[in-house]
Amino acid sequence: QVQLVESGGGLVQAGGSQRLSCSASGRGFSSYAMGWFRQAPGKEREFVAAITWNGVRTYYADSVKGRFTISRDNAKNTVYLQMNSLKPEDTAVYSCAATQGRYDSSVPYYYVENYDYWGQGTQVTVSS
Question: In sequence order, which ranges of 1-128 are alpha helices (DSSP H)?
Fold first, then answer.
C-alpha cells in the first residue's frame, strides 16, 4: 500500500510557474506508475500527466503539453509536476495517483479508474 501527500500548491499569477510535489510512503513506490489529475469547481476530474514506473515514458494532456513537465525521483519516493506559463484555466485541485498497471500505450493512464491510490490534493489558483 502507498500513501500519497501533495504539496506546493498556492496562488500564482498568470504566466508564472509552480512546482508540485507528491511524496509517497509505504512499500514499492518505484514499481508504480504515477499520474497527476486536476479538478476545477463544477467539472470532472481530468488527466494532466503521467510517468511510467521507471521514468522512461511521460504522457500529457493536450492542454498542458509544452508547459508542464512530470518527473520522478525514486530515491526520494517523490513525483513532481513543474508547471510553467500558467493560465487562469489551470486553476484546480491537483491530485497525484499511483497505479500498478504497466501499459503499452498512453490511453490507460488517462482514466481515473486505472489508479489504485490517491492523494488528498493541493489547490492551485492562477490569477489573471
Answer: none
